[in-house]
Design brief:
The protein is mainly α. It contains seven helices and two strands, in the order H-H-H-H-H-H-H-E-E.
């Protein structure tokens, strides 16, 4: 390929990119894409967004150093926090579907099902949240130690029966108090 052919190819690629950007801009400006949580998202777009989300988390979580997660007090404290903060979306062993989950898109994973997830990824997601989903950034109100406790618990969650889950939550106790921005304590 000579220099002239390469320039034509690059100009064509740039022109195509500009045309796609203009098309996306027109669709966005016209409000043609329905962002409602109860609107069925296109499969191609949904798969693309899921891929972008997963790649973003994988890249950022790769730098996380995982501490030892096998201390019983970590696991029980994490169980208590999970029970208070996470069961509305992710449920608990033996917990039936609730009224909120069907209205969420994407639907939060059932963390008690399947294999334990990657601890690095769990820590990063809990700390930073996931934009444009219902997953909050708990790192704004919780220390890394508290988040690692939740991760330690999550590593054990898929193996827990409903009875074992309740016992672990009870062992964690009621220690979940945080400061609001004005110095008052709030119970989560």
């Amino acid at each position: 390929m000579n220099g002239r052919d390469l320039r034509i190819l690059l100009l064509g690629a740039c022109g195509f990119g500009i045309a796609v950007a203009i098309g996306i801009g027109i669709v966005a400006a016209a409000g043609a894409y329905d962002v409602a949580a109860d609107a069925r998202q296109s499969t191609v777009f949904g798969h693309f967004i899921a891929w972008v989300r997963e790649r973003s988390v994988d890249v950022r979580a790769s730098a996380v150093d995982v501490p030892a997660l096998n201390r019983p007090e970590m696991i029980s404290d994490g169980a208590s926090d999970y029970d208070e903060m996470c069961t509305g979306c992710h449920l608990a062993p033996g917990m039936p579907e609730n009224e909120m989950r069907p209205g969420l898109d994407p639907k939060p994973p059932l963390l008690a099902s399947g294999a334990p997830g990657d601890a690095k990824i769990q820590f990063w997601i809990i700390k930073h949240g996931i934009g444009m989903t219902a997953m909050p950034a708990w790192g704004r109100t919780h220390s890394d130690k508290e988040i690692w406790n939740i991760v330690a618990f999550l590593q054990n969650l898929p193996r827990l029966s409903p009875h074992a889950y309740r016992a672990l939550v009870a062992r964690g106790g009621d220690h979940h108090h945080h400061e609001t921005g004005d110095g008052d304590h709030m119970k989560m």
